[in-house]
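User: Sequence for DUF2953 domain-containing protein below. C-alpha cells please.
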Amino acid sequence: MKLFLIIFIIFLIFFMPIPLKITAYCTTNDYYIKLYNFTIFSKKNKKEIVKEKTSYDKKVKTIFSKYNFKNINYKSLIKKLYNSKFKPFLRISFKLDYSLSDAAKTGFFYGILHQLPPLIYILINIPFKSTKFKYDINPIFEDNLLLKFETSSIFFFSIANIIYVLFILFKFIIKTREVPPLK
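Assistant: C-alpha cells for DUF2953 domain-containing protein:
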C-alpha cells in the first residue's frame, strides 16, 4: 500500500500542472514585477547588486561553449515546438493605457497597436498553449505624455512538460553539434 501511495504521489508531481502567477506593471513614474504578490523587482526597492563571477558561472559557460548555436535550424525547431501537444498552458492579459499629447497621434497609434495582438498571440503559442488571451488598449486623449503597461499571466506547467520541451531543445542542439573533420 505504501508503494502504491509513493508511486501515486510521484505521478501527481510529474503530471499535475503547477500554477505560477507573474504580474508586471510599468508607467512613466513606477514599475514592478511580482511573483504571487511578492515584489521581485521594483523602482522603490531598487538595490545595487554587485555580481561576482563564481565557479558555477564558469561551469555553465564551459558547458554551453561546447555547442554551436549558430547552426541550429530555427525554422524546424519553431515548427516542432508550435506543433507539440505537451506544451505548458498560459493565461495572459495585457492592458495598455497611453497618450501621446496629441489626439491625432494617439488615434493613429491606436490603429497600429491593434495590429500587435495577433502577432503576440502567435509568438506566445510557440512555447505555450494559450487558453486565455486578453489584450486591452485604451487611448487617453489628453495633452500629456502617458504610458501605462500592465500584464498578468498564469503559467500552468508540470515537470513532464518542462522535460519534454527541454528534450526537444537539446535534440536540436545536439544535432547541430560540430563534428571534427576526419584526418
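Helices lie at 2-15, 55-65, 74-82, 103-113, 116-124, 159-175.
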